[in-house]
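[Solved] Which block belongs to which protein?

Original post:
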Amino acid sequence: MKLSPRDASAYFRSPDPKRPGLLIHGDDAMRVAARRQEVLSALLGPNAEEEMRLTRLPANELRKDTAALIDAVKAQGFFPGARAVHVESATDGLSQALSAALEDWQEGDAQIVVTAGLLTARSSLRKLFEGHRTAYAAAIYNDPPGRDEVERMIADAGLKDVPRDATDALLALSRDLPPGDFRQTVEKLALFKVGDSTPVTADEVALIAPRSSEAALDDALEIVASGRTSELGPVLRRLYAQGVNPVTLCIGAVRHFRQLHAAASDPGGASAGVAKLRPPVFGPRRDKLMRQAQHWGMHRLETGLTILTDTDLQLRSASSAPAHAVMERALIRLAMLARR
């Protein structure tokens, strides 16, 4: 039977031990592995591997000895509790062996959990599980986690007092990070709050979030928009060391100043303008954008966008001027404009 994404999320948290098997497939190996770990943990509980209640069968070994699957499913362990057999990196070549194991499965046998890469609708392995009366198949897509899933990760990590603004900041972060990195960030935040009974804040989420070239770019643009010319040099050197080129920096600056212009020109004021930005902006970055939009005003931002547009054209032209120098000059002009 085929599980919808919503039903799959619920089943991963609470799998049915009376079902013979589950197929998890998708093109993102990290997401598939996270779901496999979730379902095996829910099914077997802790210490499953130490108690030999989990058997792992790589697909390449199973091709050499297809009988090993039925042997592992039927084997009885020394320790009580549910058992499972994990078939890794399965392909259509194992469909016959898996079909025989599913048909021979009886209650009390080890549950068969199969992971695979992206399977098309014509895949015999996918058809086997989706067409089976009692086994399940779940496709894992590359969609970011929803609010319910983020809130569940927060609860699993042991974070108790997480207001809406901090949850929104984590939700925004989940769209930018791979699932494994995001889960580690939530766990890191939980460790950060050990012994601290105060509510989690959006500032703390920003502090814990992994630093990237995009974060350093935001720092550079904040310095420019605030007119702090003396701080610009070190930040630019860090950006260039991370491999950010002048054209990328110019594109980021244009995007930032367009956001400021949209906020400053909103009839309801900068606060209403920032609230309408898409994708939404939360936490400290939202406050910074609001302050910058109010400080610059619509007309000065138009002048700044003109400087950036001219710079972009020069960077993309056949000009002999050094690109780094051209971009740095434009940023200094903008920073000086902010101080007027």
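(Second protein starts here: sequence line, then its structure tokens.)
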Amino acid sequence: MADISILDLVRVTDATDARAALDNARDLAGHAEGWGYRRFWVAEHHNMPGIASAATSVVLAHIAAGTSTIRIGAGGIMLPNHAPIVVAEQFGTLATLFPGRIDLGLGRAPGTDQLTVRALRRSLTDPDDFPQDVLELQAYFAPVQPGQRVQAVPAAGTRVPLWILGSSTYGAQVAAEFGLPYAFASHFAPDQLMQALAIYRARFKPSAQLARPHAMIGVNIIAADSDDRARRLATTQQMSFANLLRGTRGLSQRPIDDIDTYWSPAEKAQASSMLARSIIGSPATVTAGIAALLAETAADELMIVSDIYDHHDRLRSFQLIAEAATVTRARLVA
């Protein structure tokens, strides 16, 4: 049975502020630790009022300080936005403060619009530099070599594990070539999932970090005590996707009774395509959905997004998901 992990969006709602979003993320991570989740990741997003994780390493320190065993990481850092040495310094510091618990997922996209990209880094790099940047970053986490004149302090020797993230086959090729674990963003870009997994597994080269392929897939799962309740909770995420398609970046919104009153047929078609891999429903529905997804993909790990407006409903969803995963695990063993 695959491990289960959490990707939290650190959502700011129309009833909370950024501080509440950060504290809710820390609270969720503490619960997730007890429910058996392996990792708790947040992602770098900029210029988005509804997401409070732009200063990703700082957010991770807040979350890690409220937990004791669950792995904490970035899913991910958008490497073209940063000099690799700065990322190494930040995550080397996290690894020093929380040894053995820090992950660093790396993405090639900027994670924002082009105007914000220019504000982030005025001397823009070519995205095709991504593989070289990954190797540079990896070197900063290795022990200092004789004659090495530039060090990322205190990153040297921490060997923070790197992950390659992607929503296309490009990331699969990089992860396979470098012998790194691979996470596919099927929670918002599912079209090339199976092709990317096949490429990654077929081309994987063992490395010092990883002896065999480890494939994680992102999946939206919204669980509640009934299918109807879960479908209503899911309208928050559906509205967020509709807003993205409109170019609107607002706060997380309360669920509504009928999503078709909110989005147009064209928005529905496009958003539904992006959310096609979602599992939404009661514990029985979620259990069946997880089993089917694992049977299809043979994923080593599920990175679960449960984008729900109310914090208590979100806690309940992740608790039910953990229970569903336990049931699935027991059935596979039996």
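Accepted answer:
You had them paired correctly. Confirming on the second one: The first helix runs from residue 18 to 35.
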